[in-house]
Amino acid sequence: MTKPDLGAAAQFLAASGRVLDRRRFQRLFEGGGAGPVRDAIAAYRNPDGGFGHDLEPDGRCPDGQPAAIELALRTLDEADAWADDLVSGACGWLQANAPAGGGAAFAESSVERWPHAPWQVPEAGRPATLISTGQIAGTLHARGRSTRGWIGPRSSSGRGSTCRMKQPPGSVPTTCAACCASCAPTTGFPDCGQVRAPSQP
Predict the structure, then answer these.
(1) How many of the other CB atoms lie within 10 Å of CB of 15?
(2) Shortest CA distance to 99 belongs to which of 80, 79, 78, 125?
(3) What digits encode the pLDDT tens for the residues 156-189?
(4) What pTM does this model have?
């Protein structure tokens, strides 16, 4: 395998990357500190604890969006820059904005008022989706954080609950289910079988 040219990557990010992108690169490849990553993530946080403001480039909405929360948590995790205040705020937002049955919607309606990718379309009725719920819950469980209060009741069938998802192997929902299952504690698992993938545009 060809050795990656980290110098070229750094130059590319210096010319085209966001501050967050540069901080992630410095942390992961140049021995940078965790603090700058936390600060960069915090810049996208809203007073209600949610994340927006183009953190997830597919949606340029300043208001909180599940995709932005997922990226915020995943970045904090991968950079070992976990920050309890940011995470608690995000969990509070998830609880306040959870669909009726718990979990996280794919996209909130506020995204429609701002530039966004064609697939960032809110679904009618705001159902919970495995794409959002699985990835967020997987990261939280990997860090030992509870999802009670926003993900809904736990399954009596344990890890097997995701098997009810009728999705093609290798699809994004299947990947999210695997992420959630691999990170969930053996004592129990959120009932991700109750949530579904968003319809395709």
Answers:
(1) 7
(2) 125
(3) 333 323 323 333 344 455 455 555 555 554 334 3
(4) 0.80
How many domains would you assign to the chain?
Answer: 1
Alpha-carbon distance of 98 to 152, in angstroms, equals 9
Q: Does the residue 12 lie in any domain?
A: no
Angle at 110 between CA 89 and CA 60, to 5 degrees: 80
**Residue 119 near residue 161, CB atoms below 8 Å:** no
Residue 3 located in a structural domain: no
Is residue 6 assigned to a domain?
A: no
Q: How far apart are CA 28 and CA 112, in angstroms?
A: 34
Residue showing tokens 């996208």: 44
Q: Yes or no: say if 75 and 28 are a contact pair by the CB < 8 Å rule.
A: no
What is the per-residue pLDDT across 45-99, written as a single tens digit (0 to 9) for each? 999 999 999 999 999 999 999 999 999 999 999 999 999 999 999 999 999 999 9
Can you give the residue range of the structural domain that contains 37?
18-194
Q: Look at the block and give the residue holding tokens 């940078």.
A: 32
pLDDT at position 101: 86
Please state the length of the chain: 201
Q: What is the pLDDT of residue 152?
A: 66
Cα end-to-end distance, the chain, whole Å:
37
